[in-house]
Write a structure and sequence with these properties.
Length: about 325
């Protein structure tokens, strides 16, 4: 049975779409997706959260579709992120998450944020995932990317490659693996989930000849997780994403960001979805950035945002009914 969160919303509670970086393509694809879906998905209305003027600049949006949060702190210059707008960007996220935590929303779909601008504006988190874990009081938030028939999770996310080996621990792999397996059951309806786990080194370490992380850390973690589900690994990352290999598992846990995201974006560049596992609320996001270079030029493709909204609705159905 799906987990019944203490924040369970009503079946027809709306899905909230946050503004993201106002100078980027986030508001544009949010409004485009809203229109493409007719302002609703199934039984749920779609609501846009942020500075209303930012959304209205992208086209006709009825007042009933808007949830206004803190206004911009600086005049909007499309294509130029301004740290003075940090409070407005973060407040849109806070507003949407607070509503979901109170049961007033079925899910939160976040438009992309501009991390460098937010950091300059005093934001202290590496990205959405880390911030959402903090404000929902979650022990561990896990970033899953889905699309093209593939689901991937990077164990480490927004850190330098040089820091990755030191962050790989048996505890981290087991805890992350448990969250993935639970989500596959509760959010994706897979009764007997299968998890693939990559190695860190080329050829998964060649039995210790090219690094010992696989022997000393990853393999014991795989063995611990096998008590709960079918687990493959540690697998060489260069051979685990071809078509036949993907048919053997429902999700892949990789050791670092690009190891997971390169195959996902190769298969589903335009309609990949970012899903945060381990939260008491449903959160998805399009799998792309703010694209400041094309903002305001009518070139932004809303397919990933539409896919993120559909995924949020599907997960809310599975989790809350």
């Amino acid at each position: 049975m799906p987990r019944k969160s203490e924040y369970s919303p009503l079946p027809d509670a709306p899905i909230l779409i946050t503004m993201g970086e106002p100078a980027g393509i986030g508001p544009e694809v949010a409004v485009s997706a809203w229109h493409a879906l007719g302002g609703r998905i199934g039984k749920r209305l779609l609501k846009l959260v942020g500075d209303a003027s930012v959304f209205r600049a992208q086209g006709d949006v009825p007042q009933t579709a808007l949830i206004e949060s803190h206004a911009l702190g600086a005049t909007l210059r499309t294509g130029h992120a301004d740290p003075a707008n940090t409070h407005a960007v973060v407040d849109a996220i806070d507003t949407a998450v607070a509503m979901a935590m109170q049961g007033a929303a079925s899910a939160v779909v976040t438009a992309p944020i501009h991390k460098a601008s937010l950091l300059q504006g005093g934001f202290e988190f590496a990205g959405h995932t880390e911030y959402l874990a903090k404000i929902t009081d979650s022990d561990r938030a896990v970033m899953m990317l889905a699309g093209g028939g593939l689901r991937v999770v990077p164990l480490t996310i927004h850190i330098a490659i040089s820091e990755v080996p030191g962050r790989i621990t048996e505890v981290a792999i087991v805890e992350t693996g448990e969250i993935i397996l639970r989500a596959l059951k509760e959010d994706f309806g897979i009764a007997k989930p299968r998890l693939a786990i990559s190695g860190l080194n080329p050829h998964a370490g060649e039995d210790g000849e090219i690094g010992r992380e696989e022997r000393d850390i990853i393999r014991p973690a795989c063995e611990a997780l096998r008590a709960e589900a079918m687990v493959l690994g540690p697998l060489p990352a260069d051979t685990m994403f071809h078509e036949e290999a993907r048919a053997r598992y429902d999700a892949a846990l990789c050791m670092y960001h690009d190891q997971a995201l390169i195959p996902l974006k190769t298969l589903a560049f335009w309609d990949g979805v970012n899903i945060t596992l381990g939260l008491p609320i449903v959160r998805t996001s399009p799998d792309h950035g703010t694209a400041l270079d094309i903002a305001g030029k009518g070139k932004a493709d809303p397919r990933s945002m539409i896919a993120a909204i559909k995924m949020a609705s599907d997960i809310a159905d599975a989790r809350f009914g």
